[in-house]
Design goal:
The chain has about 210 residues and is mainly α. The protein has eight helices and no strands.
Length: about 210
């Protein structure tokens, strides 16, 4: 069962990461696909948690603390992301709040929820770092997966520091959209192979 959960979760994660990447690229062409990109992001989070849980289930006994840490960070990431994105497609989409509060909750305005969004992805990076530490490499693919998971952990630094420094605060909206969209495309290109390699890792058994 652990094997199946790992395979299904990583396959779903890869599908939604790819979908998010495509929608982001379309969005940069000034096509309004924001709602569907947010939906894809929600399911990235929902599939990421069981994927990380499968890493924790597969790891050796001496790596259990690392696996448990990865799971906890995954849960924290999912909590932040689901709060931010569910707000976007419900409260904001239905225009059920005042303009001032709406500005703060709309993460496209680079305000409060934007900072929470970045923090959430930073916590996700910590989760992948610790998940990478659980992998006992038996093949070249395992080594690549381990390296990519741990390497992805570097995103925690930028995700944490940029909001603190207010990098996006005074940036022109158009520039921020292009820069942010490009970063998200790069992230999708990096994370999709992680999902694919994870599927292969779990396919070999948990």
């Amino acid at each position: 069962m652990n094997k199946k959960i790992g395979m299904i979760a990583s396959a779903a994660n890869g599908f939604f990461v790819a979908s998010f990447g495509v929608l982001t690229a379309i969005g940069l062409l000034d096509v309004d696909v924001f709602y569907w990109a947010v939906i894809a992001s929600i399911f990235i989070a929902l599939s990421f948690v069981p994927m990380v849980a499968a890493f924790a289930a597969k790891c050796k006994q001496e790596a259990k603390a690392k696996g448990n840490t990865a799971m906890i960070f995954a849960a924290i990431y999912a909590t932040f992301i689901l709060m931010v994105y569910f707000t976007q497609i419900t409260t904001l989409h239905n225009e059920s709040i005042g303009e001032e509060i709406g500005f703060m909750l709309n993460y496209l305005n680079f305000s409060w929820f934007f900072n929470l969004n970045l923090l959430g992805y930073g916590i996700m990076s910590l989760s992948t770092f610790f998940a990478g530490l659980t992998i006992y490499t038996q093949s070249k693919g395992d080594k690549v997966l381990k390296g990519m998971l741990m390497g992805h952990g570097i995103f925690f630094v930028s995700s944490f520091i940029m909001p603190v420094l207010g990098v996006f605060t005074n940036m022109d909206g158009t520039d921020a959209t292009w820069i942010g969209g490009t970063v998200l495309l790069i992230w999708s290109a990096i994370f999709l192979p992680i999902s694919i390699l994870s599927f292969n890792y779990f396919r070999k058994g948990v």
